[in-house]
Automatic annotation (TrEMBL):
Pfam families (UniProt xref): MFS_1
Signal sequence coordinates: none
Principal subcellular localization: membrane
Phylogenetic classification of the source organism: Bacteria, Pseudomonadati, Pseudomonadota, Gammaproteobacteria, Pseudomonadales
Protein name: MFS transporter
Amino acid sequence: MQRTLIVMGPVQMIGFCLAITAFELITYMASDMIMPAMLTVTDEFNADARHVPNAFNLYLIGGVCLQWLIGPLSDRYGRRRLLLLGCALFGLACSAAVMIQRIEAFNALRLIQGMGLGFVIAVSYPALQEVFCEADAVRLMALLGNVALLSPLLGPLLGSLLLEWLSWRQLFLGLGAASAVTWIGLWVWMPETIGVVRRDGQQQAPVPFSLRQIRRSYLALLRNRRFVGSSLALGLMSLPLIAWIGLAPVLLMQRLELSALAYGLWQIPVFSAVIVGNLLLDRLLTNHSLVRVIGLALWPFCLGLLMLIATALSSTSLILTVAGLALYALGLGMSNAALYRLTLFASDEGKGLVSAMIGMLSIAVMGAGGSLIAVIGGGRSLQSFAVWAALGGLLCLPLLYRLLRNAPAAPDAPDSHQ
């Protein structure tokens, strides 16, 4: 059974997990469900197709913009009220899409909508870590990650089908309505973890809010090589997947002239592999340490990226490219939640602030890396995409090598019954 550190009844616990999951899901759906319509959006605004990956990268960068402030504010004023504020901001930004008439306004809204992702990372993730013990928190994040992965898995397909009857503006309006329902769920079920006496008798007191102290804390984190290396590794490991999400509409629908439905179907093998990886993580946690799990995950991770490079050098087969991405995605799913947990507890600073810095560093790497891959020609052909995406992902290996080499010789395996 799971051991909670905050006193919660079963109904509240289930409701809390569902509300957190729903908010995470719709923040990703706001990106993935609209991707099949992006060429329609650029055509409507008479804009260049380069805005397709740009809008996606702006969404990621939006997730970074406020994290430096959101995390410390949640350490001071509580996770609950900050997440409610973030959900409301996200819902309003989605609903506002029905009124815009220029691509510049569309991109600005994408930036604001991406800030909702920042609230998920800087507020909801620490709240989950504070409610559950280590092994359960890692399992729960992996399982919630599976639900969030339904967005890139089903989002393009769902978006393609809905676009048969609805406009892209109506899709955004629907996301705004879903945000309103999620806000109600968070208001009813989300507990406060700051300033509350936990079941073990401990209390996480609010951290005084001081811009000077925040600056000191962030500088201390930047001097923590283990923390910085792990955060950058998180971003680099996800970079090939992020580049695929941003460039797949151009590569498949424009370059290969596939239909929106075919584009959505080609996403299934990749994101299904991430889900399978998350399920394997849950099984491995029963008798392996987090560091050991990451070491095992590197095998499919590296083999998949090397397969991408080999495929690019020999052919431009879509089947082989997607197969390499799927193998890589399996390793990513096995390692992501475990690496996040290790990174979060690599410092004793307030977990909201630490989580914000993790998000800023990792998402900045993903956003900047995805933009760079697009600029240097990753969207010109499958061959070019495969080479640059694989090389970007492999850059994480030196950072992970240092992390695994400096790990304790015999770390305690997580106990699922703590």
